Structure formats: structure tokens, C-alpha cells
Amino acid sequence: xxxxxxxxxxxxxxxxxxxxxxxxxxxxxxxxxxxxxxxxxxxxxxxxxxxxxxxxxxxxxxxxxxxxxxxxxxxxxxxxxxxxxxxxxxxxxxxxxxxxxxxxxxxxxxxxxxxxxxxxxxxxxxxxxxxxxxxxxxxxxxxxxxxxxxxxxxxxxxxxxxxxxxxxxxxxxxxxxxxxxxxxxxxxxxxxxxxxxxxxxxxxxxxxxxxxxxxxxxxxxxxxxxxxxxxxxxxxxxxxxxxxxxxxxxxxxxxxxxxxxxxxxxxxxxxxxxxxxxxxxxxxxxxxxxxxxxxxxxxxxxxxxxxxxxxxxxxxxxxxxxxxxxxxxxxxxxxxxxxxxxxxxxxxxxxxxxxxxxxxxxxxxxxx
Length: 368
Ligand SMILES: [Zn+2]
Ligand SMILES: [Zn+2]
What we know:
This protein is α+β, with helices and mostly antiparallel strands. The protein is built from seven helices and 20 strands.
């Protein structure tokens, strides 16, 4: 629908206030270079103040906002990372109690997402499974269904498990080789995460999805070899969260931040793997009893039509509660008349780097 305004950005990023390599202004410049409209910096267990705002240079501008990635540092392993946005305050002291963390975040008017929910152990770099493990919770806003760095870690772990090479040097060389071309190994969100999301949706929950870089700009050292895994700008061209807003951003930070945060919380958004092709033109709408977009909740009515418009010909799947209800290949449109209520979401897959990759993962349209 032409009266919605599209913006893209990344909402999981680390600076040198935690374990990232660069500071806000430098990261903002890399986001501008990658063409992003907004970024949210989420340092580990520190809410950094005084840095939010528009950052500009001769190539453009980007809105930088501050969130926080909170986890319990006394937990072993230090898993269950929580992404808090819009709470406007330090939340780290609530880390030992995930439910309190969720309640504090949402109680302060913010939104909270479970970061990289499914991970593998990667002994090669002494990185344990940092997925979400504390499931006795409720009320969170959504899931980070695709985290590029976590996807890559999982791809390396899966490859090494398959090869069964116990030799540390051989494993290190395989890992290093893979870091030269991560795009060959990252294929899409973890299937377990999508299945979990579908399970929540089938139980009638509203669960919004986001997708991010988890950029650190970290140098990786393997003996004498050193490589940045991966530069911020590279990652800002990979997995992003795209939003549709009912009015344009106007340059007023408080106004623009509120619009964006609400869109993330309501799921007026999709996760796009922009490295395989820009996902900016994607739209998913419903027309019938009323008109709605991605993330909207509409009364179910006979004759309502769900419409998908992809930015290029691709495989399009319309999914309800984990079941593919309609699928087309090498098409850029799909129309479907649902014959039951439920949460309907869209996946688009596209060939890239020699195989079909996950490209677009939309939030659902909820027909109640
Ligand atoms: Zn994390
Ligand atoms: Zn992180």
C-alpha cells in the first residue's frame, strides 16, 4: 500500500562499551555507507546514554538509538540473551530473573526480544551454546529469528561436527576458510527457531520477529592469522529488519524513535537478507473486511484475500502455524483466500551463491 513508508535498519550491534570494536559515530558512518535508515546499539549489560540521535555525513544520515542486550553473567553458560528496546533505562540488574527483566522492559514502555534462541556449541572458539534456555517466561514481544553472526557460528559448528575432525589446527583452518566467505554457509534462520515461532503463533500468541547482524567488528586470531569477523558495514548489508510506518520519519528524534519502536513491537516488519538482493519492495497485505498490512490483527471474514508482493521472482510460501498453505516458484506475487482464521506469515527464498537461500521472513497477519 502506497501510504506506508519503508525503512530498513539493524537492531543488534555492539560497540567498544561492551565487546565490539568501534564507537557509535564510526558505526553510524558504516550504517550510512550500507544504506540503513536506523540502527540500535545493544551493548552487553550496559545502557549507554547521551549517544542517541541522527548521525550525518556527505553520504546521508542514520538514526542511532540505544537498547541493551542483557544476560546473567553468573549463569553458566552465559546464555539467554535478552534484547531490550525503548525502556530508556539500565536493566542489567534484572538479568538473574528473566521474567522480571521482561516485566521491567515492557513496564517501562519498551519491547523485549529473545536473542539468537537456538545455538550450537563451538568449542573451536570456546563459545558455548548461547541460545535461550529459560523458557518459564511470558509476555515478551518477540524473537530474533535470524542473527547473522549466530547463524554463521552454527554453520561452522555443524560443519565441524559433520567432519568429525578432532585436530584443533585442522578445525581452525576449516573455520578460518569459512570466515572468508560466510555468505556461502549462511542459508537462513535456524529451523528450530522458525518451528518455535510457529508453535507460539499456533497457540494464539502475538510474537513479532526481528533479524539482525549482531555486529562486533571483532578480529579473530587463529595462531598467526588475524581476520575481522566481520566488518560492521558488511554485516549491515546482510540480515536486517525492515519496517513499514504509517507516516514518514521527520528528523525529530523522539517522534521517529516512537514510530520505529511501535512498528517493531507490533511486527509491522519483516526480516530481509539484503545481501541476496534488496528486500525493500516486499509487501504482505490483506483485503476483505478491511485492509491491513503485515503485523495487523483483522477480524477473519469470508472472502478476505492475502496478497504477497515480492521484490523479485522467487519461491514464495504462505505459512499458517507451521503448515505451508500455498507455494509458488519463480513468481513475484501470491494471492490466497484463507478458509480459516489464524496467523499467516510469508517466507521468500531466492537463489544466491549457488543455492536457494532464505531471503524474506515476514511477520504474520493475524486473522482472528
Ligand atoms: Zn547475544
Ligand atoms: Zn549480541
